[in-house]
Fold:
Amino acid sequence: MTKTLKENIKDYYGGYNLSTRQLRQMQNIQTRLRASYYRRLKYRGAWATVASVAILLVFLFIFFNTTSRRAYFTELITEIANNHNKNLDVEIKSNSLEDVGRYLSRLDFPLIDSALLPRDAWELIGGRYCSLNGQFAAQLKFQNKMNRKIYTLFQLEKPIDITGVSGFSENFVNGVKVNLWIERGLVIALAGES
Structure:
């Protein structure tokens, strides 16, 4: 009867024995390899944990920063619409932005001529102080020379913690169209009937 390959190998190597010294050397090699493996595994696990925590922190920072920025502007736009709907009289009547700026001297910023409101299309009626989201702001009344409608322009200093905001947004709140943008370090909002 012929033997299988497995049986032949078993018979051939079964006759060999390791000496005590060779056996100890083999056991030492096995112990070192096992220790090295567990050490690498431990460090990989530590780095994986550190990387996971770092990714989680970045995600949470972005999520909460975006959420707080969105909440800030949502509250601001609602307050702008409400202030516009109150239709309060101006404290100083003047078509000169410089005169209105001198009157509103308690502001921490100078009033600006917005690039989006060219003087040939908009006429300044006057201005007053107001508060938006707890911040001191300017509330200016303008008349559109084309449709003769009255609009309210708000200027307030851009909060330092609101970063990464740019562009133009158009919003509709309580029957008021509120256009909001950042210009020269100020938050600018134009409110009028939608």
